[in-house]
Design goal:
Blueprint lengths: L1 H21 L4 H11 L9 H18 L6 H12 L3 H45 L4 H12 L6 H9 L4 H8 L7 H15 L3 H25 L1 H23 L4 H7 L1 H31 L1
Helix pairs in contact: 1-2, 1-3, 4-5, 5-6, 5-10, 6-7, 7-8, 8-9, 9-10, 11-13, 12-13
GO cellular component, one term: plasma membrane
Subcellular location: Cell membrane
InterPro entries: T2SS_GspF_dom
Length: about 290
């Protein structure tokens, strides 16, 4: 009976852990639910250590599994179904392309977060200056609260603390993606500290300009969402055609992978598909760059 209880509890634990892992954003809440449901697992011999080990293992697997690696099993599946090595080769070639796309998206999101941090830095610095702090001390406090300086925080704060070239350090920090607004902060700092003008007023105008630029880019991205969706839909139409061919009783994989005409169509279609996606992506990026 004890062995059967341990087996049933282990199966239940595996099912609940898999459901929590597949829930994506609900991972932590799923883990908590597993622990609450199996809180009496000590009597069955599983205990909290087993729960911890399984949830930690699922978390490690989830962290190591990258989306681009799904290209390999998809290619292998098509290779088995089509009895050809070409889908496996295409799946392996798709891994670096998908990885590059994922990393580009991550870099873009990091740049947007850094842009928001720079805007928050300008607002916090203006507030500290109005509160009566000296510019150097105000920059130390604002940078600590917002993190808008990014990786260049040490150099900029050292210049502010020891009387160094703060505008130069800010200009160097502006080379980070998304931190271009720090060039405006460097200009405000040079005009205010070196020329005696009001720093808070300049920071307010800079913050307003950066917010307006961010909102404009957000609006443009929303307007271009239709073009992106169209490109994705067009990219998926060949797969829909293959499914329709299978539904009609044909064998499109055999035609494409084992006949000369099919291989020619596959090659031409792949080239045109790639050119179409590249062209739409280029149009979207050019529109974003102009904005």
């Amino acid at each position: 009976m004890t062995g059967a209880a341990e087996l049933s509890t282990g199966v239940a634990l595996a099912c609940l852990g898999a459901a929590a892992w597949l829930s994506g954003s609900g991972w932590h809440s799923g883990v908590r639910r597993v622990r609450l449901v199996l809180a009496d697992g000590v009597a069955a011999g599983t205990g909290p250590p087993a729960v911890h080990r399984m949830t930690d293992g699922l978390r490690r697997v989830r962290g190591r599994l990258r989306p681009e690696w799904w290209s390999l099993p998809a290619g292998l599946l098509l290779a088995v179904l089509g009895n050809s090595v070409l889908p496996a080769v295409a799946g392996a070639a798709g891994v670096p392309l998908l990885r590059r796309t994922r990393l580009a998206g991550r870099a873009r999101r990091a740049g947007e977060r850094r842009q928001d941090a720079v805007i928050a830095l300008c607002g916090a610095l203006a507030g500290e200056v109005r509160a009566g702090r000296q510019p150097g001390e105000a920059l130390l406090c604002a940078a600590h609260d917002t993190g808008g300086l990014g990786d260049a925080r040490t150099a900029v704060l050292a210049a502010a603390r020891f009387g160094g070239d703060v505008p130069g350090a800010l200009a160097a920090a502006a080379r980070q993606p998304g931190a271009e607004g720090l060039r405006g902060l460097a200009a405000c700092w040079w005009v205010a500290v070196d020329q005696g003008a009001g720093l808070a007023a300049g920071l307010d105008r800079l913050e307003g300009a950066l917010r307006a630029e961010r909102d404009q880019r957000s609006d443009l991205r929303a307007q271009l969402a239709g073009a992106r969706a169209t490109a994705v839909m067009l990219a998926g139409l060949p797969v829909l055609g293959l499914l329709l061919g299978v539904a009609l009783g044909a064998d499109p994989l055999y035609v494409l992978l084992h006949t000369g005409a099919g291989l020619g169509c596959l090659l031409a279609g792949g080239v045109l598909e790639g050119l179409g996606v590249w062209w739409v992506t280029r149009i979207v990026r050019a529109a974003e760059a102009v904005s």
